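Annotated sample (chain length 60).
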Amino acid sequence: MEEKDRKYHSNPSHSKTFGQYSPPIPADMIAQMAAMKLQEEASKEGSRSSNSHREETHET
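Output written by the structure step:
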Protein backbone atom coordinates (compact mmCIF):
# COMPACT_ATOMS: atom_id res chain seq x y z
CA MET A 1 0.00 0.00 0.00
CA GLU A 2 1.35 3.42 -0.90
CA GLU A 3 1.96 6.09 1.74
CA LYS A 4 -0.90 8.28 0.50
CA ASP A 5 -3.26 5.30 0.69
CA ARG A 6 -2.20 4.53 4.26
CA LYS A 7 -2.80 8.12 5.30
CA TYR A 8 -6.34 8.30 3.93
CA HIS A 9 -7.32 4.66 4.30
CA SER A 10 -10.50 4.33 6.32
CA ASN A 11 -11.86 1.21 7.93
CA PRO A 12 -15.56 1.74 8.72
CA SER A 13 -15.52 -0.97 11.39
CA HIS A 14 -13.24 1.26 13.48
CA SER A 15 -15.81 4.05 13.47
CA LYS A 16 -17.56 4.99 16.72
CA THR A 17 -20.95 4.59 15.05
CA PHE A 18 -20.18 1.38 13.13
CA GLY A 19 -23.33 -0.72 12.78
CA GLN A 20 -25.55 1.95 14.30
CA TYR A 21 -26.73 3.63 11.09
CA SER A 22 -30.48 3.45 10.94
CA PRO A 23 -31.87 5.03 7.76
CA PRO A 24 -35.45 6.23 7.82
CA ILE A 25 -37.81 3.62 6.38
CA PRO A 26 -40.81 4.93 4.43
CA ALA A 27 -44.14 4.14 6.05
CA ASP A 28 -45.50 2.52 2.88
CA MET A 29 -42.56 0.11 2.83
CA ILE A 30 -43.22 -0.86 6.46
CA ALA A 31 -46.86 -1.53 5.56
CA GLN A 32 -45.81 -3.69 2.60
CA MET A 33 -43.41 -5.69 4.77
CA ALA A 34 -46.09 -6.22 7.41
CA ALA A 35 -48.52 -7.47 4.75
CA MET A 36 -45.89 -9.87 3.41
CA LYS A 37 -45.25 -11.22 6.91
CA LEU A 38 -48.97 -11.81 7.46
CA GLN A 39 -49.19 -13.64 4.12
CA GLU A 40 -46.23 -15.85 5.08
CA GLU A 41 -47.77 -16.71 8.44
CA ALA A 42 -51.11 -17.51 6.83
CA SER A 43 -49.49 -19.77 4.24
CA LYS A 44 -47.49 -21.56 6.95
CA GLU A 45 -50.63 -22.17 8.99
CA GLY A 46 -52.42 -23.43 5.89
CA SER A 47 -49.63 -25.86 5.03
CA ARG A 48 -49.47 -27.13 8.61
CA SER A 49 -53.17 -27.93 8.70
CA SER A 50 -53.08 -29.61 5.29
CA ASN A 51 -50.04 -31.69 6.33
CA SER A 52 -51.71 -32.86 9.53
CA HIS A 53 -54.82 -33.76 7.55
CA ARG A 54 -52.72 -35.85 5.15
CA GLU A 55 -51.08 -37.68 8.04
CA GLU A 56 -54.47 -38.52 9.50
CA THR A 57 -55.67 -39.99 6.20
CA HIS A 58 -52.52 -42.15 5.92
CA GLU A 59 -53.01 -43.62 9.40
CA THR A 60 -56.52 -44.92 8.68
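Annotation: The CA atoms of residues 6 and 43 lie 53 Å apart.
Annotation: Residues 19-43 form one domain.
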